[in-house]
Design a protein that fits this description.
The complex is a heterodimer of chains A (about 140) and B (about 475). Chain A has 5 helices and 5 strands; from the N terminus they run ααααβαββββ. The N and C termini of chain A lie far apart (about 80 Å). A 5-stranded mixed β-sheet of chain A has the order 2-1-3-5-4, with helices on one face. With about 140 residues, chain A is α/β, with parallel strands linked by helices. Chain B is mainly α and about 475 residues long. Chain B contains 21 helices and no strands. Chain B is globular, with a radius of gyration of 22 Å. The chains are: A alpha/beta (about 140), B mainly alpha (about 475). The interface between A and B is medium-sized, with 31 and 34 residues.
């Protein structure tokens, strides 16, 4: 194949399409395995999709907090790194409940046996994910 | 099905607002019907978000009737005074496309559908989209207005929410919620793929005017749409894609006006999008200044200042965009809102010295992006190759107005990195790939223009 302008253009386009297809497939099936996620998500309702994205346990904790905490209550997260993605999602999801250091409620995520003076367990998702209330 | 109808009706109402604005700006119908549809949505979204900000700022509630009332009035105004503006000539027919062109349209359609799918399958969940934009829009929607102390007190407990950021995305989300009547963090994401689609439509028609060939315009529209970083940012709910869209449309319509100065509608549309760039992100200020510089450059090169009519138009542009920038800065200053990552007080001699030492790191990061095929395919490699091999051509009059903004973009953003107080490795790692999106449509446009005489599309079709 002679390296004239036409062939260079053709070559560039072939490379472009190969990269384009390759990175879509790689993300879907190999590295990202997004196809598996999409297959899971596509037939689920919004609640279940949210739960899938947030993580089942974490989402259950947020739902429980939303149900159990009074409107003006403050909360603090235990077991979630401050300013992490989960933390951000919790702050967003639970608004108008506000996060505070001296919180009325502690939302404990995956901390089996966690206790704190002045707080008692009021409701639980499971043994390691639960809500404590200031007494 | 209910969701599709909701998104569709929200799109139509938003486009209706933009269409009526466009009818005022473009009385001579320089814009064809499909391009008009794309622009109508983008202009409508921007205009409603600004309007909602004003409604909230004066303490009124975000009621649908309040929001739509001025636009319904504008519709009746257009109906009475410029009835002809409601019909526009058609400028695209799928029937006349060659097989190769149909294949490109097919690939483009796939990319758009896949982008919609990825956006709507998950709720708002990415870091910045949750912590900056969605949180603000939820607070604003639940308050039904902008609380008086919103920027100073209400946002205080939320670390990293950046109260100084412009509100296009947040207000657009509030507009969506106000329209459907509830917070829905799945459907609200449709703002982004719809904007993506509308922009691609506008991009195609603009490019076609420059490259003259339909096949080339289609091909480069596909090139842009298929860049992974570009379409990924149409799915996650942050402002970077919209900034790239608003900036590039501001620049493209300015270039169109420079090409055909009889069509002043191009200049008005450009001014509109320059303002929307400022309203999208703080970086929009730099990008709007770049557009103003291009206009200044053209005025000097072509001695437009000798023509009184053109000089009035150019002055109008500078006054309107300048007033918007000044008004926005004044508003932020009045509330004491300062960006902690970069602000003008950081530009001083001391920071210049430390900033010079950051340049190798910045260049290294740029290089990483240029060769990051996963995100950018080979678009940066192609443009580097073209810039070197066609250096002189890049600065010829036809290409100058695309080349200069790209160079100024790199100078401006490198200066931000140099003077910023943020730890440079962290700042580069977190922002460069997003920042490059701001210039990407202009870069693809530049490639298309500089390879115009090669007839890339036809060469491929014949091959």
């Amino acid at each position: 194949m002679k390296l004239n302008k036409k062939n260079i253009i053709k070559l560039i386009c072939i490379v472009w399409v190969i990269f384009w297809v390759n990175f879509i497939l790689r993300e879907l099936f190999f590295k990202g395995r997004l196809f598996r996620d999409y297959k899971e998500l596509i037939f689920k309702n919004e609640e279940l999709r949210k739960s899938f994205v947030y993580g089942i346990n974490f989402y259950s904790l947020l739902k429980l907090a939303q149900k159990e905490l009074p409107e003006s209550a403050t909360f603090s997260l235990v077991g979630v790194e401050r300013l992490s993605l989960d933390y951000r999602r919790a702050v967003y999801y639970l608004y108008p409940l506000l996060e505070s250091e001296k919180a009325d409620y502690l939302l404990v995520y995956k901390k089996y046996g966690f206790v704190k003076n002045g707080y008692k367990k009021i409701v639980a998702v499971d043994r390691e994910t639960f809500i404590l209330k200031r007494i | 099905m209910k969701n599709v109808i909701m998104i569709l009706s929200w799109f139509l109402v938003t486009a209706f607002v933009g269409f009526n604005i466009l009818a005022v700006l473009d009385k001579k119908k320089a814009i064809g019907n499909l391009e008009c549809a794309g622009l109508s949505f983008l202009i409508g979204l921007g205009a409603i978000s600004i309007e909602m900000f004003l409604i909230g700022a004066i303490g009124l509630k975000f009621r649908l009737s309040f929001i739509l009332l001025p636009w319904i009035a504008l519709f009746f105004f257009n109906l009475v005074f410029s009835r002809g503006c409601f019909t526009r000539k058609s400028n695209f027919s799928i029937k006349r496309l060659s097989l190769f062109e149909q294949a490109i349209v097919g690939l483009l359609s796939f990319e758009v559908c896949y982008t919609f799918f990825r956006a709507l399958i998950k709720p708002i969940e990415a870091y910045d989209s949750v912590s900056i934009y969605a949180l603000k829009s939820k607070i604003l929607y639940m308050a039904h207005t902008i609380p008086k102390d919103f920027f100073t007190e209400v946002l205080k407990p939320f670390h990293g929410v950046h109260p100084d950021y412009p509100l296009l995305v947040s207000m657009s989300e509030v507009w969506f919620y106000a329209f459907i009547g509830s917070v829905n963090d799945f459907l609200v994401k449709s703002i982004f793929p719809v904007s993506f689609l509308c922009f691609l439509v506008a991009f195609y028609f603009i490019l076609k005017r420059f490259v003259k060939k339909r096949i080339t315009a289609l091909l480069f529209t596909f090139v842009l749409a298929s860049i992974a970083q570009f379409n990924a940012y149409a799915t996650i709910g942050v402002a970077d894609l919209l900034l790239g869209v608003n900036f590039s449309l501001g620049l493209f319509y300015l270039c169109l006006w420079i090409k055909d100065k009889e069509k002043s509608a191009y200049l008005y549309i450009s001014a509109m999008f320059s303002m929307l760039a400022v309203w999208t992100k703080n970086e929009g200020m730099i990008l709007a200044l770049i557009i103003l510089f291009v206009l200044f450059l053209d005025t000097v090169i072509r001695r437009s200042y000798c023509d009184k009519g053109k000089l009035v138009l150019v002055s109008f542009y500078f006054v309107v965009v300048g007033a918007f920038i000044f008004g926005f800065i004044s508003y932020k200053n009045s509330l004491g809102l300062v960006n902690e990552n970069f602000n003008l007080s950081m530009i001083n001699g001391e920071n210049l010295l430390s900033g010079l030492r950051k340049i190798p790191l910045v260049l290294y990061e740029y290089q990483k992006q240029f060769f990051g095929f996963k995100k950018w395919n080979i678009v940066w490699v192609i443009s580097l190759f073209l810039f070197i091999s066609r250096f002189k051509e890049s600065f010829k009059r036809d290409n100058l107005y695309a080349t200069v903004p790209i160079i100024l973009f790199f100078i401006g953003y490198t200066a931000v990195y140099m003077f910023s107080a943020v730890e440079i490795d962290f700042f580069l790692r977190k922002t460069t790939s997003r920042f490059f999106l701001h210039i990407l449509p202009v870069l693809v446009f530049w490639i298309a223009c500089i390879t115009k005489q090669d007839n890339v599309g036809e060469a491929l079709q014949n091959a």
